[in-house]
Amino acid sequence: MINKNNDYKMPIVLIGNSFKYEIESICKLFFHTARFNFTEDITEAQGESYIIAECEISGDNMRLSATIRLNGDTPETEEKILPENTEKRTAEHELCRLIYHILCRKTGISAPWGLMTGIRPVKKVTELMAQGFSRQEIEKTLSERYELSPNKLALAYETAVNQQPILDSIDTSAASLYVSIPFCPTRCSYCSFVSHSMASAIKLMPQYIDALCRELEIIGRLVKENDTKIDTIYFGGGTPTSISAEDIRRVMEAVAANFDLNRIREYSFEAGRPDTITEEKLRVIKELGADRISVNPQTLNDDVLRVIGRQHTGKEAIEAFELARKIGFDNINTDLIAGLPTESTESFKNTLDKIVELSPESITVHTLTVKRSAALFRDGNENMANPAAEMVDYSIEKLMANGYLPYYMYRQKNTVDNLENVGYAKKGYESQYNIFIMDETQTILGAGCAASTKLVYPDGLINRIHNYKFPYEYINRFDELMEKKQEVTQCLRKIKSIPQK
User: Fold this and answer.
1) Beta carbons within 8 Å of 409's beta carbon, 6+ residues apart
2) pLDDT in tens, 133-169
3) May I ask the CATH architecture of the domain 9-107?
4) Beta-carbon-side half-sphere exposure of residue 9 (alpha carbons within 13 Å)
5) How far is the CA of 374 from the CAs of 17, 300, 368, 383, 471, in angstroms?
């Protein structure tokens, strides 16, 4: 295919428009790891593969035209005429539709989410629900605009219905807290998160923990000064259990000292990789207030675990889960990934069946995403040719048949088969933080390296403050970073005026 060599950039010629972002998003549905060269020079459209996207005003009309050639085949053109005064957003969408139709025919690929390229498909449903649309009207509207497949429409609708009670309970005058422990024992081959191996970070660990505790103290002071309620707390990474039990205790004690734990509704700790989970760490996590944890094997197939760079077995993952149960955790999530390299459909089914037998309170099914910063990206499209769709279809059927309901969903670029990531939970065990972070209606205060603070103002404006990605930057430029936190005070003062729930 066009991106067998990841150094190659496919020409996309834009004539009379600047719709680069959305056109690239549509093309990524078909060429997941391809790279593109956007240009206005028509002479670039002379090779074996190219796309020409044209928008021309002629009299009272706007003519949209897309011409595509792939791998030396016969170029194909599709056109559409719109009124001259058509809004830019509509013209962009319709031009992308022309490109989408041609690529569907030329590649034989039928994208299950159609033209919907955003990461929050459920939000489209909830917006229409808020306007009083019926299920039939919602499905008709989204089907016509985005050409979604019926099963994805149904999944999005069911997810929206299941999360609606929690959305209705969101306290927008409150905030949630995210604590970042961006370290892992090793880097998994599929991983694109900003995380650092313990081998390289061990020398910085004492300074990092000190700085993180200082930041928690600073954020805690801002929260107290503005009488802000902390709604949920989430420890993520990386793998938070990569650090020692002593360091976990220090950070969690800093949280307890600076925030009122009596008022929170949910306290999650992503224990993560089974090879980092010990009884001592779990006891510290439980003692200091976390009531929801994640144990994330991704697969129970030992051969696949070795391929992706994991240093534990499927048996050890089950033992870590059972240890958490023994210690008394009664709200456990388990993460799996559909489409991992060398994983067969049968292997994935076996993993999911065993996890369901363990009966965790929630199960999150991710689909493999191949990003440029992940080691798997080097193999280009080879990693995209796997039966992920079959795995995802099985997970929907299996989980819903066993009382797990979809409650949050998000999509990412470069995901195998253009699929989705879905959190399923038994009734009453939905993660509120996961819904809050997807819905973007509550402020999230981020602490730690690579954490992001998302300030949600009463008028809907969202501003983000990103902490430095690397531990040495976070440590050495800490005071400079904290100066940015002054905007947090402005936001907390404004949301304080919102009636509390």
Assistant:
1) 120, 121, 122, 155, 156, 159, 420, 421, 422, 423, 438
2) 999 999 999 999 999 999 999 999 999 999 999 999 9
3) 2-Layer Sandwich (3.30)
4) 9
5) 33, 21, 11, 12, 20
